[in-house]
Design a protein that fits this description.
The protein is mostly helical and 166 residues long. It has eight helices and four strands; from the N terminus they run E-H-H-H-E-E-E-H-H-H-H-H. Strands 1-2 form a two-stranded antiparallel sheet. Helix 6 (97-109) packs across helix 7.
């Protein structure tokens, strides 16, 4: 197997909407070049920064950058992925299925490199209906250190005290 760069079709569609149709041929040209030549870390950084897209760099041993196996990536392409996520979230938070899955998807949007693709959410409801549990359940499944759980924070707290947090 040779080096490969793979860009999801959805990412190409987003890029073409943002930068015009010409971007598709430019990306294809870059992919052809880098698939024939080894790509060092500098190339990965340049390609990712230039196109600001989720780009997979697949090594000859079939592993994607950061040693993630292609089999793991394929699990994310399963048609019942949201059902699997729901089952996992159900272990700690019952009911609220639409809100639970929406909150999870919004939370993982914060992990994207391109800040334009991140989204946020405000959940309001009566006291003691499970809002804290909902967020704690979702945040439990994110990498540690990428989020902070706050309730009733003031604007100065958000601007000053946690500005370096994601």
């Amino acid at each position: 197997m040779e080096n490969k760069i793979y860009v999801e079709e959805s990412e190409i569609n987003i890029l073409s909407q943002e930068k015009g149709k010409g971007i598709i041929s430019e990306i294809e040209k870059q992919i052809k070049y880098y698939n024939k030549n080894p790509f060092p870390e500098k190339t990965k950084q340049w390609f990712s920064q230039k196109y600001k897209a989720f780009i997979n760099f697949i090594n000859p041993d079939g592993k994607i950058e950061d040693e993630v196996n292609i089999e793991i990536i394929n699990k994310f392409k399963k048609p019942d992925l949201l059902d699997e996520i729901k089952k996992e979230l159900d272990k700690d938070h019952k009911e609220d299925n639409n809100l639970k899955l929406t909150t999870f998807l919004i939370a993982i949007s914060g992990l994207q490199k391109n800040s334009k693709r991140r989204i946020s959410e405000a959940v309001t409801s009566d006291s003691s209906v499970g809002k804290d549990n909902l967020f704690k359940t979702v945040l439990k499944h994110l990498p540690s250190g990428v989020a902070i759980f706050l309730t009733n924070a003031t604007q100065p707290t958000l601007e000053d005290d946690i500005k370096d947090k994601k």
